[in-house]
């Protein structure tokens, strides 16, 4: 056994993590990085990887490797093939079944199909590293060096830049690690039987995956009700979801549905899953809120959560400290500068006096009432409408503003969610929204204006999300002209306006946005990432 293997055994017993090469952190614990310091890996000494990831009864059974690289999708199946070839060459095929792998394209057991780990959050969280979990005996620890080298060589060959770890920090966590964003069904042979049992874990992971896909716990509950064994209601689902086949496929892969004389209905396992959702609704709702709140934007180099945290601090200004002031936030550069000038003038060694201290004082966060006007025409069915609903929930949870939601289709504009700060009310209202018909944009802006104008609002903001152009007139025979007239009323009442639309409709939407004296952001597609990034860039959520 080489000296590195001896060192690994020694550090693993202490609960510490170590660096292998320049890119890999190895431990038997959970380790994490923060977006602010991606070069520093924190090993949580009191969070065993086997217990946390796999619900194993004993600690120190699972080795956890993270090998870091630039933000990029890595083909998990090609990488797995490379590692299998290495292990076969080393005559270690007996351990291949006890290695799990995950990248930004999926994962699972090394020798399995590698079609698992497909949740959006899970893949996003692995865009910057290759995750491996292994069950190895001490005498096989030499293999870790070979495995890390093989992964690094693979990444280099695939023109994926590997990233150096500057520091590994071993620390005791103050609270349990929330790994709900990492939950997914898997074919792993590393799983234990501890806790509430394998059935609970499987139902929980399925619930997380379905909630993330739908963006709603309420809609998941409704889908299961419509597929209950009491009667087939697939037509209702087809009307509401253009991508119902994707939903059916996900439920089928988990064996939650089966074919009967009545059509597609919930299986016995599906009925148990429906019961699980009802019994654990509050816990699952908390998980959903975390998923929505903590989502990472893969473009622009900033997460929406971090953006809103920074804005939430409020506008700052500097002032000298007064007697009795609480020194919550010191302006260090200004304080040091004052101390240096004073020390120089007094011809003394540098030191800081109370009179040198400059504080950053922050104004409180301003209240803001936001009304989303969502296009619910037929072309929005499926992922577009789901993404718009997701944005509404994300604003409520992250910006902590009052949110209302109206939707328009054909000749109707409906209030689905009156102004609220309650997530359950928002989720319930949005779950009843179904897309169909044409795009009455003029009516939508007019009714949205009337609704907001009738309320006593603070710093009102209207956000319009649409994938089309006006197709239904309101006052004349020109749908665009009517939309512009309606938009002009918004600016006169000092209602802030922001529109997100598709690139082909830019010219039309620009005229409407200009009339409202607002901002327009055009995207190629109305995906979650695009909508979140548009909102971040707009600067319309006030401090």
Query: What is the global morphology?
Result: globular
% residues in beta strands = 15-25%
Count of runs of 4 or more consecutive helical residues: 19
User: Strand arrangement, largest sheet?
Assistant: 1-2-5-8-6-7
DSSP summary, beta strand count: 19
Terminus-to-terminus distance: 59 Å
Average pLDDT figure? 84
Biggest sheet architecture? 6 strands, antiparallel
What is the C-alpha radius of gyration, as a whole number of Å?
27 Å
Helix content, binned percent:
40-55%
Q: Given the helix and strand composition, which structural class is it?
A: alpha/beta
Topology summary:
Blueprint: H1 3-13, E1 18-20, E2 24-27, E3 29-34, E4 37-48, H2 49-54, E5 63-68, H3 76-89, E6 99-103, E7 106-109, H4 120-124, E8 129-134, H5 142-157, E9 167-171, H6 198-214, H7 217-226, H8 234-240, H9 244-253, E10 257-260, E11 263-266, H10 268-279, H11 281-293, H12 304-312, E12 316-320, H13 332-345, E13 358-362, E14 369-375, H14 383-399, E15 402-409, E16 412-420, H15 423-431, H16 441-453, E17 461-465, H17 479-492, E18 496-502, H18 506-515, E19 519-523, H19 528-538
Parallel strand pairs: 4-9, 14-15, 14-17, 17-18, 18-19
Antiparallel strand pairs: 1-2, 2-5, 3-4, 5-8, 6-7, 6-8, 10-11, 12-13, 15-16
Helix pairs in contact: 3-5, 6-11, 14-15, 16-17, 17-18
């Amino acid at each position: 056994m080489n000296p590195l293997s001896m060192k690994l055994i020694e550090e693993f017993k202490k609960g510490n993590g170590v660096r292998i090469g320049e890119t890999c952190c190895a431990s038997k614990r959970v380790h994490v990085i923060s977006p602010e310091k991606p070069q520093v890996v924190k090993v949580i000494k009191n969070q065993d990887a086997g217990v946390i990831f796999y619900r194993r009864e004993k600690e120190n059974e699972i080795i956890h490797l993270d090998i870091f690289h630039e933000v990029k999708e890595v083909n998990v199946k090609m990488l797995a093939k490379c590692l299998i070839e290495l292990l076969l060459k080393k005559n270690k095929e007996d351990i291949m079944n006890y290695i799990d792998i995950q990248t930004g394209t999926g994962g699972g057991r090394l020798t399995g199909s590698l079609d698992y780990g497909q949740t959006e959050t899970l893949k996003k969280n692995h865009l910057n590293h290759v995750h491996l979990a292994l069950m190895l005996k001490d005498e096989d620890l030499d293999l870790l060096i070979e495995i890390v080298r093989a992964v690094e060589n693979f990444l280099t060959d695939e023109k994926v830049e590997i990233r150096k770890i500057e520091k590994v920090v071993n620390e005791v966590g103050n609270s349990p690690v929330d790994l709900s964003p990492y939950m997914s069904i898997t074919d792993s042979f590393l799983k234990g039987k501890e806790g509430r049992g394998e059935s609970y874990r499987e139902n929980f992971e399925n619930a997380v995956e379905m909630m993330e896909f739908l963006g709603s716990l309420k809609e998941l509950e409704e889908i299961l009700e419509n597929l209950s064994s009491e009667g087939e209601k697939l037509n209702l689902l087809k009307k509401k979801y253009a991508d119902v086949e994707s939903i059916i496929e996900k439920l089928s892969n988990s064996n939650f549905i089966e074919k009967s004389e009545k059509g597609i209905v919930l299986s016995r396992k599906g009925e148990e899953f429906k019961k699980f959702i009802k019994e654990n609704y509050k816990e699952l709702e908390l998980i959903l809120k975390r998923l929505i709140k903590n989502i990472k934007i893969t473009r622009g180099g900033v997460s929406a959560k971090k953006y809103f945290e920074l804005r939430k601090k409020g506008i700052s200004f500097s002032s000298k400290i007064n007697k009795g002031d609480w020194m919550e936030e010191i302006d260090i550069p200004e304080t040091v500068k004052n101390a240096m000038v004073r020390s120089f003038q007094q011809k003394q060694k540098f030191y800081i006096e109370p009179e040198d201290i400059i504080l950053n004082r922050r104004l409180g966060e301003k209240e803001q009432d936001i009304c989303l006007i969502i296009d619910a025409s037929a072309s929005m069915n499926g992922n577009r409408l789901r993404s718009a609903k997701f944005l509404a929930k994300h604003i409520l949870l992250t910006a902590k503003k009052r949110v209302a939601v109206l939707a328009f289709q054909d000749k109707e504009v409906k209030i689905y969610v009156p102004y609220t700060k309650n997530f359950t009310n928002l989720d319930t209202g949005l779950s009843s929204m179904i897309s169909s018909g044409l795009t009455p944009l003029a009516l939508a802006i007019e009714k949205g204006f009337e609704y907001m104008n009738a309320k006593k609002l603070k710093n009102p903001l209207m956000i319009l999300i649409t994938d089309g152009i006006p197709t239904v007139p309101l006052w004349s025979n020109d749908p665009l002209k009517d939309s512009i007239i309606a938009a002009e009323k918004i600016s006169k009442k000092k209602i802030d306006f922001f529109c997100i639309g598709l690139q082909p409709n830019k010219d039309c939407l620009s005229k409407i946005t200009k009339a409202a004296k607002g901002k327009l952001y055009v995207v190629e597609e109305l995906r979650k990432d695009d909508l979140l990034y548009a909102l971040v860039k707009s600067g319309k959520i006030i401090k």
